[in-house]
Amino acid sequence: MIPAGYMAKRIAVRPEWLEVLHIQDIFSVSGCTSTDFADYVTYWRHNGFWLFDSPQLIKNVTGEHSISLEGMSLFYYEVHELQYDGAEWRPFVSELSFQANVSLPARKTLEGFDVVTFAAGNGPECSPLSCNSLAQTLSTNQHCLFKSFEEAQTALIEGAFHDSEPGPYRIFAVYSVPWI
Which of 16, 31, 68, 152 has the most CB atoms within 10 Å of its CB? Predict the structure, then answer.
């Protein structure tokens, strides 16, 4: 797994349309349900994975633009070095015009694994487990994430994502980290 970066998110409780009662909230990488702290791309401070290299960089952006972090949760992500195009696992590279120099967290808690679409090839787009309600047919934890990397990989290989959003698909490890 490759260190991909950090994101501050407003965590959404399980929406009513996602009829999986054991799911409490959505820890997806995408900002579709649990939104990112801002439309951050417009500040051009993200790295080549379209995330942030450190929590401090997020704090700098929010301070410069008077964005409140109240009620936000902080996440650290690692991404599998291969993406799945629906038939094969292929290598990918982060956006080369943005360097990635991710600071590793001192403490992190693994929350699960998300499968995220990258049809445009740059930033995280959709997390079909929540965005397309695939969690209604696939086994997830209380945060609408796969419990293991192997479960995510198997679901992709077996075609569970074929009728959701267009790929390619990348597997992310999702960690909660404390604000410092």
Answer: 152
Instruction: Please name every residue paired with 79 in a beta bridge, in sequence order, or none if there are none.
Output: 2, 172
The vertex-53 CA angle with 61 and 121, nearest 5°, equals 100
How far is residue 115 from each of residues 54, 60, 65, 107, 146, measured CA to CA in Å? 22, 29, 31, 23, 9
Contacts of range 81-87, beta carbons closer than 8 Å, 24 or more positions apart: 81/1, 81/2, 83/118, 83/167, 83/168, 83/169, 83/170, 84/156, 84/157, 84/167, 84/168, 84/169, 84/170, 84/171, 85/167, 85/168, 85/169, 86/161, 86/162, 86/167, 86/168, 86/169
Token couple for 156: 């992709």
124 has pLDDT over 80: yes
This prediction's pTM: 0.93
Per-residue pLDDT band at 103 (split at 50, 70, 90): very high
Q: How far is the CA of 117 from the CAs of 85, 112, 113, in angstroms?
A: 10, 17, 13
Radius of gyration of the chain (CA): 15
Q: What is the mean pLDDT of residues 162-173?
A: 88
> Which tokens is 98 given?
């943005």
Encode pLDDT of 15-57 as tens digits.
Answer: 888 888 899 999 999 888 889 988 888 888 888 898 999 999 9
